[in-house]
Specification:
The chain is globular. It has one domain. It has 341 residues and is an alpha/beta fold.
Length: 341
Amino acid sequence: MSRLYSILLLVVVVSSCSPKIVSYTGGDAFKSETGVPDYSRIEYWAAHPGKNDPSDTIPYPLKKNEKEKRADVFFLHPTTLVGPREIGISNAKIDDPYINYKTDYSPIIYQASAFNENARVFAPRYRQAHIGMYSEKDSASKYAAFNLAYEDVKNAFLYYLKNENNGRPIIIASHSQGTTHATRLLKEFFDGKELSNRLVCAYLIGMAVRKDSYEKIPICTDSTKTGCYVSWRTYRKDYEGEWANRLDTSIVVVNPVTWKTTSEIADKSLQKGAVLYNLNKVYAHTQNAQAEGSALWVSHPKFPGSFLYRNKNYHAGDINLFYVDVRNDVSRRITNFLIGK
């Protein structure tokens, strides 16, 4: 495995960046007596405005752009329970210090932070399903694992709504397994429901989301829309395999450079900036992007050392390759939402 492959997998070498972390109370700082998260306790949140955590990190070049927190982001992190699966273990323990540290200093610091410019970030810890459960042949075991994870997500969201939201605009954001649960959460709480009036946008990233997923929530077809959702999965333009197909038009693909669903190629000169392993470095104009079929197709990204990266599936970089583009879009949609109110 190349060093850059590790980078795009968000296996963080913390010493290579200098995030602003004042204090941290996750990981081994708590112990659940029942194994069930109690979301009234701040320890059960990987990110929460009531504590200093990795989601507060702002890349140095972007610090000058920080704005008033006018909305909330409910962020669901991707799978960090990977590697060999212990016999009989399908879900992470909520108080596993290694998994929680890995979560906080990979997706929370590198992905959730992309949403913090104009919003408060809430990211619950949840008993995520092991990565191997996606390929589990026993359908009952598979369902049970993902249902357990979703129940935690749902309980966290219910607690957030009752105790933290206070009528504020809401953004749902997720990646990979987080999107598996976020698509369900959006259906249960927002699709045709009164709460949709508070939805700024849902960023359902890194999984295939079908165009017929929702009855009332539309796809965002440009950067001005609110009350809608976006989704994409990223592959190099010469990728060939079972995960993406240029002829499959059933999947939602929004180009995070143009924020359109049309298939024209967005030149790399339009891409605002990627943030990779060094959080204090922004790389602009790294790749072009095209939404076509079931995926987002990009050119080989250009940044120092990128020639070493040969993998054509850019799943781990779905957010980070467009970090500034996402950041700008969140603030723009919040502004448009509030103007519309």
